[in-house]
Predict the structure.
Amino acid sequence: MDERDELEAPEGAAEQFLNWRERMREFLRQLFDMQFQQLITPRMLPTIYLLAIVASGYAVLAFAVEGFARSTGIGLFRLLVVAPAGFMVLVTVSRIALEFLLVVFRLAVDVSQMAGHTGDIASGLPRIQFWKGLLGGSRPRGR
């Protein structure tokens, strides 16, 4: 490692720190956007998932510790059998719920884009006045 590499490393760290500060500033700006112009929930999902994993681990560990307070046998059973299965179930349910939420947000974006395209397409088509016939307006002749 020469002197050039040592000098460039702090610049990379400083650049990452500035990038992090800018991302945090942007996140806070979007968080307090009272007009809801941009959705931040999809960006928060990885953090929410991490919190769900930590909370699941804490919950099953507390459940196992409570079992040890009752007796060693119950505590071992909870620690070795119930806790791993419970952890997997909690994390799986959290993941499914967050993926469902992400699909809903992506669907909303896609529907919004389709609505814009539909408006563009419909503006170029001639209007067909079939509602007048259905509502008793002009009737066809010959009857």
